[in-house]
Amino acid sequence: MKTRKIVLYPLACAAAVAASSLVAVSPAGAHGYVSSPPSRQAQCAQGAVACGDVTYEPQSVEAAKGSTECNGGAERFAELNDDGKGWPRTSVGTSTEFSWTLTARHSTATWEYFVGDDLVASFDGGGAQPGATVTHTVDLSGYTGDQTVLARWNVADTAMAFYACVDLRVG
């Protein structure tokens, strides 16, 4: 009986260490995306547009801060930059509410909204951890017709941001 304990204890310890190291190196599986009006990745997840991996992970479009690409520069989600995919547009007025669905709530530096190269709105997150949903009202009165808004959520305590493009018909 004593021999069995001597063998089982080291095996159990080794298994625990192996399991904990797997957890430590696994990437987080969830973060956030614009769900309303539906972003490109939300449309992929809903099956409105045929897409790759983003269909199953709309919340995972994460890349280094500073990009103005729909995929943030993350090659894994390159299809989000393809304007030829026929992204459905949502008709909105000149003031629009953007709602983020957050599945992992990171402390926030800023939320930014761009039309082309123009920063049209910025909201200070103050380093706080947001709730499960965040909504911002963005004034788009300087724009009309078909526009693509890039929404960027800048995380406060890392060099990363989350990206979402929303195709709109303004006015």
How would you sum up this structure, described in words?
It is a single chain. With 171 residues, the chain is α+β, with helices and mostly antiparallel strands. It is built from two helices and nine strands. It has helices at 2-25, 40-46; strands spanning 32-36, 62-64, 90-92, 95-102, 108-115, 118-124, 133-139, 145-155, 160-170. The strands form two sheets. Strands 2, 3, 5, 6, 8 and 9 form a six-stranded mixed β-sheet that branches. The longest helix is centred in the first third of the chain and has 24 residues, at 2-25. The protein is globular, with a radius of gyration of 20 Å. Mean pLDDT is 87; it is low at 7-30. Pfam families: LPMO_10 (PF03067). Residues 1-30 form the signal peptide. This is Chitin-binding protein. Keywords: Signal. Residues 31-168 form the Chitin-binding type-4 domain.
Q: What is the SS-derived class?
A: alpha+beta
- Subunit arrangement of the protein: single chain
Number of helices: 2
- Low-pLDDT runs: 7-30
H/E series, N to C? HEHEEEEEEEE
Query: Average pLDDT value?
Result: 87
Q: What distance separates the N and C termini?
A: 79 Å
What does the overall shape look like?
Answer: globular
Beta-strand content bin: 35-45%
Radius of gyration: 20 Å
Helical content (DSSP H or I, runs of 4+): 10-25%
Biggest sheet character: 6 strands, mixed
State the total count of DSSP E strands: 9
